[in-house]
Amino acid sequence: MAELLDDDTIESRLPEHWHLDGDEITRTYEFDDYLEGVAFASEVGEIAEEQFHHPEIRIRYGKVDVRFTSHEEGGVTDQDIDMAERTDALR
């Protein structure tokens, strides 16, 4: 099992534009159109499947919300921070 990170550690390690929300980290990405957001969400899903660490993804017109948490541990771990960085690298 991965070790939970405390709030101060999470805040200091979060990539730009990511936020701590309870026991999750979250970011909203903006797109010019709906299908661009859908394609991005699909790419995030591919990375998530490779890493076996799946986010909650919400697709809206021009926006995609991505949320990571480590359910088994009950909060944010190094793996969530890593996935946030991998997700940002897609943009």
TrEMBL record:
It comes from the Archaea. It catalyses: (4aS,6R)-4a-hydroxy-L-erythro-5,6,7,8-tetrahydrobiopterin = (6R)-L-erythro-6,7-dihydrobiopterin + H2O. Its EC number is 4.2.1.96. InterPro entries: PCD_sf, Pterin_deHydtase. Gene3D superfamilies: Transcriptional coactivator/pterin dehydratase. One of its GO terms (biological process) is tetrahydrobiopterin biosynthetic process. GO terms for molecular function: 4-alpha-hydroxytetrahydrobiopterin dehydratase activity. Keywords: Lyase. Pfam families: Pterin_4a. Coiled coil: none annotated. PANTHER family: PTERIN-4-ALPHA-CARBINOLAMINE DEHYDRATASE. This is Putative pterin-4-alpha-carbinolamine dehydratase. It comes from Halobacterium jilantaiense. The lineage of its organism: Archaea, Methanobacteriati, Methanobacteriota, Stenosarchaea group, Halobacteria.
